[in-house]
């Protein structure tokens, strides 16, 4: 069995850290991921650098990443200006975030969910015209810090709208780390029904120590791709008490020991997580780098 692990550390992993890394350091991070065997990387975010200063210099990063056959770099965009920047920078795919709760959407993106879906329609059409695949990440799919429980029917309707506009994949994101495996199973089935045939990607945070269980449940439900961040860094700067993503190296350990192939060197990623913690001045939350693999 094989599954794809999408490395989100260069974007989601860095956007909430106090220390902003230089474009050169971010290129070095991405290069380490590629050399470890990672083939999908969320490299940059084309958002206003005044709101997310850690993501400044996206064009410089894209100009310096290693271009290898089979390696795909995605960029996060929220509007047409961001899309234009992403296309000019040479991204291989575009990731558009649609937040499932209005309160968080307004705080995070300055528009309601319905307004963001309208923007998605335009972004999707323009990206298709440029020959670049565009996908949707449904944020706060498992719960919102301001509105509480996210109605699963709302998530399914956003997925249907995303698929209707041609999303090449749909990601369900547990932005604040409140989801549990039962929710993963329920949402997976609802979204498959709403967007039949569209590959599903999952993005989990380990805020309440359920991220890895959720990832393995998503795998059982047919996940095409799982997001993870080297070292376990990450979080949303607009979500109170947000903590890190599931760690790539710890997820790889669970996958590889379960007989799932990823093509990624687990030990190399663990070394990268430790290296990244040194750059950021905070220790990685990943455990594999401390405990080591088994068998050793």
From TrEMBL:
Family annotation (InterPro entries): Aldolase_TIM (IPR013785), HMGL (IPR043594), PYR_CT (IPR000891)
Sections of the chain in a coiled coil: none
Transmembrane stretches, start-end: none
Domain spans labelled Pyruvate carboxyltransferase: 3-270
UniProt keyword terms in alphabetical order: Lyase, Metal-binding
Lyase is among the record's keywords: yes
One Gene Ontology MF term: lyase activity
Protein family per UniProt: Belongs to the HMG-CoA lyase family.
Protein name as annotated: Hydroxymethylglutaryl-CoA lyase
Source organism (scientific name): Actinomadura fibrosa
């Amino acid at each position: 069995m094989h599954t794809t692990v999408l490395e989100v550390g260069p974007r989601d992993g860095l956007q909430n850290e106090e220390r902003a890394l230089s474009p050169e350091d971010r290129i070095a991070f991405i290069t380490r991921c590629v050399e470890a065997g990672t083939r999908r990387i969320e490299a940059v975010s084309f958002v206003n650098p005044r709101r997310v200063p850690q993501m400044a210099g996206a064009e410089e990063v894209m100009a310096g990443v290693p271009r290898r056959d089979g390696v795909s770099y995605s960029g996060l965009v929220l509007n047409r200006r961001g899309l234009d920047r992403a296309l000019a920078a040479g991204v291989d795919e575009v990731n558009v975030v649609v937040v499932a709760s209005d309160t968080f959407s307004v705080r995070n993106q300055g528009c309601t969910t319905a307004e963001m879906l309208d923007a998605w329609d335009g972004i999707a059409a323009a990206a298709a015209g440029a020959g670049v695949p565009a996908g949707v990440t449904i944020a706060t799919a498992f719960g919102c810090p301001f509105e509480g429980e996210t109605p699963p029917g709302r998530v399914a309707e956003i997925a249907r709208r995303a698929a209707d506009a041609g999303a090449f994949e749909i990601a369900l994101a547990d932005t604040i780390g409140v989801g549990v495996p039962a929710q993963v199973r329920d949402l997976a089935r609802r979204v498959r029904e709403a967007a039949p045939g569209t590959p599903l990607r999952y993005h989990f945070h380990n805020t309440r120590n359920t991220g890895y269980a959720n990832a393995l449940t998503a795998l059982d439900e047919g996940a095409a791709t799982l997001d993870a961040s080297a070292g376990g860094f990450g979080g949303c700067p607009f979500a109170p008490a947000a903590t890190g993503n599931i760690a790539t190296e710890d997820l790889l350990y669970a996958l590889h020991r379960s007989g799932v192939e990823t093509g990624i060197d687990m030990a190399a990623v663990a070394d990268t997580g430790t290296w990244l913690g040194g750059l950021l001045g905070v220790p990685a939350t990943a455990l594999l780098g401390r405990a080591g693999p088994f068998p050793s």
